[in-house]
Amino acid sequence: MEHIVFLTGRLAQPGLERVLGGIDAAPFTWEVREIGLQVAALMTADMIRRRVAAPVQAHRIIVPGRCRGDLDALTRHFGIPVQRGPEELKDLPRYFDRAAKPIDLGEYEVAIFAEIVDAPRLTVGGIIERARRYAADGANVIDLGGLPETRFDHLAESVQALKAEGFQVSVDSMDPAELVRGGRAGADYLLSLSLDTLWVADEVDSTPILIPREPADEASLHEAIETMQRRGRPFMADPILDPIPFGLTASIVRYHRLRSRFPEVPIMMGVGNLTELTEADTSGINAVLFGIAAELKVAAVLTTQVSEHARRAVREADWARRIMHAATRLNALPKGISDALMTVHAKHPFPDTPAEIDATAALVRDPNFRVQITRAGLHVYNRDGLRLGQDPFELWPQLRLDDDAAHAFYMGVELARAEIAWRLGKRYVQDQPLDWGCAADRQTDDLNRWCAPGTTMSTNNPKTPPTSEPGQ
Q: Of 66, 100, 134, which marks where a domain is finished?
């Protein structure tokens, strides 16, 4: 059986031993080594090299999740794998379960068309800049959206500039003449042709996306599909997804009927009518829509980023297609695959109980404040005792930091984050930004922002912003 050595600090050691002892039928034996520091989160690779004698009689070494430094160098030094564990002790059981069943999110089947809806109003340079951002977030095709009664004089130039940059390009317009111009300039796709405008496809080499004359006119879409099949031309078909409450359910049924009638036809689904026109967090909307797309074997999704609340739509679509593809491939529920789309709430927001925090607080002998949250509220403790509250303003007078501006600022930031996490049900880790999934760019961790390059934070100086200890 595999034997694992876990490295930790003094305060975390009892909790680590409890968690490891509670893993039922663990497929490994273990030992915990406290390497002579109080706060496990401050452990570094250099410190481990100095304080842990080689050789280590084990199959591998697990270090705290926030341990900084070159673990590959430690692996070479000890001659066995040295790996980071999860950032929180309570996540160890899930860490080992997930490590035993790695899930590949590198694959997907749905192409993302990202529409630049105001393309006629942008310069060619502006279009290229927007396209680069969309591609970085996962877009496969850059869609140039036309605007009613708005001239797009630089359409051909824009298509050619995008193609020169290596992008696949689609042109989206209600004007057939504009579609012809885009196609002749080299567009890969044209959105959209109905039965009445199929003649455009004879003028260009672009792949058309077919739509019904009216959303409910399924017969006209079916006839357009059959016409293109007889011609032997590639195409995609889009029955049109309607917004709430103007026929969403009926439109989903149309997609299902289309797939049933034409099992092999590539389908496109435009999701902007839901993400843009529903005032709800778009990560959840995208999760559901891409789940439907996976079941229907949709080939492509058209998305937009117009409303401010939908400003991460392309990135969310990229995560959603990968997660739903993995769930479909594994024939499993989309749970435990990735939490990237859980932007507001966490699945396990409160890993510690008040009793466990009480036990840890009783061991603290320094003046630095630790902040943790449970369902009961915000727990703040140091050598002078533990305070519990649900409002930073309630806790503030008990901290007595009126004469320490730097520390007061730091604690204000941490208590505000802790309150946000507690009210929303998010995971809170002191000295770390809140994790908003794919809804926001990840920040550099606060520990590094407070420290000068090449230095580590000391917990012996009460003037120094303190660090947490709940992690391994």
A: 100
Beta strands 370-374; 377-382: pairing state: antiparallel
Q: Are 280 and 314 in contact (CB under 8 A)?
A: no
pLDDT in tens, the chain (472 residues): 899 999 999 888 888 888 888 887 778 899 999 999 888 888 999 999 999 999 999 999 999 988 989 999 999 999 999 999 988 777 888 788 755 456 789 999 999 999 999 999 999 999 999 999 999 999 999 999 988 888 999 999 999 999 999 999 999 999 999 999 999 999 999 998 999 999 999 999 999 999 999 999 999 999 999 999 999 999 999 999 999 999 999 999 999 999 999 999 999 999 999 999 999 999 999 999 999 999 999 999 999 999 999 999 999 999 999 999 999 998 888 987 888 999 999 988 998 899 989 999 999 999 999 999 999 999 999 999 999 999 999 999 999 998 899 999 999 999 999 999 999 999 999 988 999 999 988 765 444 443 333 323 333 333 333 343 334 4
Separate counts of helices (H) and strands (E) for the chain: 17, 15
Q: Is residue 185 part of a domain?
A: yes
Q: What's the CATH code of the domain at 65?
A: 3.40.50
Provide the domain limits for residue 71: 2-100
Residue type, 445: D
Q: Where are the beta strands (DSSP E) in 200-350?
A: 207-210, 236-237, 268-270, 300-304
Answer whether 0.85 is exceeded by the pTM: no
225 shares a domain with 125 = yes
Position 64 in a domain: yes
Q: For the chain, how many structural domains are there in total? A: 3
Residue 409 domain flag: yes
The tokens for 63 are: 């270090």
Asked if the structure places residue 380 within a domain, the reply is: yes
